[in-house]
Input
Amino acid sequence: MSFIPKDIEDYCIQHSTQPSELAKELMNFTRAGVHGSHMLIGEMEGSVLKFLIKLADVKKIIELGTYTGYSALIMAEALPEDGKIITIDLNPETSKIAQSFWDKSPHGKKIQLILKPGLEALATLSGEFDFFFIDADKNNYSNYLDWALKHLSKKGIIVVDNTLWYGKVLTAGLDKQTDSIREHNEKVLNLEGYTKTLLPIRDGMYLIQKG
Ligand SMILES: C[S@@+](CC[C@H](N)C(=O)[O-])C[C@H]1O[C@@H](n2cnc3c(N)ncnc32)[C@H](O)[C@@H]1O
Output
């Protein structure tokens, strides 16, 4: 889903830093034959993630929702040599595709996959992280947010994807996922001591930072 007219979005993509050849290959491979390819973040959101990671001097990332590994690859490419991304998913098939592409990248060594349900995986982790990309399991968005807020470094950024959910967030009571995202968005709105902006990029990117 994108709220930006396609020709405008294409123009923005053309005038932004391009994904690597490997990232393009992974996107084409996924779009050509992997079930659920509409879930890919795409070039526009990918370039925003890269920009934020560089801007905030991010070193440690947690991603919820690996799928075929496109967003993890994009983010790993933006990290410094000693950067690290832990990405979490419960699907072994799509994770296998992800790993096969990361193995072809010089940035692949920065990526660690945890193949477990999100909350179970987070329970095995500790310490602070500079960047969270939450893109899995809409019903747990509020729980992932709570965990991220507790483990966010001082200048860290949380990005939560699909927070406009095809525009369905405007209406209460449509279905469980929409209500979960609405609940999450209200929680973010009411956070004190944080700066937040909900951007209409792709399906809605909610950005949250302390201060
Ligand atoms: C929107 S896709 C992620 C797309 C990916 N970030 C990208 O753009 O390349 C969501 C992923 O979340 C995973 N997922 C769903 N429920 C989950 C859960 N409870 N724990 C971990 N991962 C989950 C799915 O298997 C799917 O691969």
In short: The radius of gyration is 16 Å. The longest strand covers residues 152-161. Residues 6-210 form a domain with the Rossmann fold fold (CATH 3.40.50.150).
